Automatic annotation (TrEMBL):
Family matches, as PANTHER family: CYTOCHROME C OXIDASE SUBUNIT 2 (PTHR22888:SF9), CYTOCHROME C OXIDASE, SUBUNIT II (PTHR22888)
GO molecular function, one term: copper ion binding
Organism: Brucella intermedia M86
GO cellular component: plasma membrane
GO terms under biological process: ATP synthesis coupled electron transport
Limits of the Cytochrome oxidase subunit II transmembrane region profile domain: 164-259
Protein name in UniProt: Cytochrome c oxidase subunit 2
Record domain Cytochrome oxidase subunit II copper A binding: where: 260-400
Coiled coil: none
Entry-linked InterPro entries: CcO_II (IPR045187), CcO_II-like_C (IPR002429), CcO_II_C (IPR034210), Copper_CuA (IPR001505), Cupredoxin (IPR008972), Cyt_c_oxidase_su2 (IPR014222), Cyt_c_oxidase_su2_TM_dom (IPR011759), Cyt_c_oxidase_su2_TM_sf (IPR036257)
Compartment(s): Cell membrane; Membrane
Keyword terms of this UniProt record: Copper, Electron transport, Membrane, Metal-binding, Respiratory chain, Translocase, Transmembrane, Transmembrane helix, Transport
Keyword tRNA processing: no
Amino acid sequence: MKSPDRITGTLTRCIGHEKRRDRRFSVLAIIATVIPSVASIVTRHVKGSVLSNHGFIKGFVRFSKVFMVGWNNSARPNNPGHSQFFARLRAKMPHRNIFAFLAVCAKVWFERRRGMRPSLASGVQLERAKRERVLVDKIVATTKGAFGGALAVLWTTGAAFADQPRPWEWRFQDAATGIAEQIHWFERYTLWFIIPITLLVLFLLVWVVLRFRASANPEPSKTSHNTAIEVIWTIGPVIILLFLAVPSFQLLTAQYSPEDPTLTVKATGYQWYWGYEYQVDNPVSFDSLLLKDGDRAAAGKEDKSRYPRLLAVDNEVVVPVGETVRLLVTAADVIHSWTIPAFGVKMDAVPGRINEAWFKADREGLYYGQCSELCGKDHGFMPIAVRVVSKEQYQTWIAAAGSDLNGANKALQAAVEGGANDKVAAAGL
């Protein structure tokens, strides 16, 4: 292992290497800036979640904190936590912040040492180092904002993506079932593999383009193989796939292991609306069509914040909260797909075949979806609406719907809208 003096000497030499290598500085500075940015974002957004107890996350955050404390203490010699090692580094480096320090560290590991020149004795090279310092500061400010903001969006879910459709939404809506919660967790879990792999491949691509370009390698390497690398890139993906496969199979098992249903509803897709049949003692069946703007007043659904345009229907599916609902899905003409994103349910409706799905809504509300299989010219006008109500309200509705569907719907609508628990879930398009 290198001694501190040798490390500082190497860092010093890295500051003033040949001019032809200076154009690599911005790329390496950006890569080095990722480390503290990720640490701060992980600390802020993963705290309190399942991932906060992960050993790697704890170690990464702890290392980043210790590193930052050591660097900051080196600027205060009278501080009890003063580190001579960091002080020597700071004294020999013209850079003034931790991100510039990491950028220089990156040069130690990613730049070839052959051909470098001692630099601090040269006034010209000191001026170049000062220009590099200004460049790094600009890169750090830009990268922290863009990269940090992107990661913050990746790890943050909440009310901003709920209630009703909003322009430019692209994340999942709030989960209303246990299966949807598991799907959301698995999506966040896979991002811990996707993001590092993407950044690694991007870095390798940039590094290979710069490191092995023709001007830097007039005589290209004739290496034909490397056993160690081949073993790593074979075993590494296998391990990653195992970490992805285990929770994936657990999720699939949960999706295909429903509890005993208390209610069975058959959904039939037509061009371009849905028909529903309740398999209960007092059979109830109805069609559910897109609510046109001219029919809103008669239906008492003029509030577009509660009944969004192109998503509201004339007759919603009504189910009780906290009860397992078995859904039988089929089609009468072409292939459709019954989808409610908040429930984590998407099932194809195939003519001549009955597919089965299920859901168990954990909270009351009005949830929207759409046909998710291209089925003709009005495919985009085939919404799905499910109203989850209390068990008492459901029993009252089902008792009246067999003889007077419109009256039952209006009575239920008045009762629900008069309460405080009615929420509109966003449509996942």
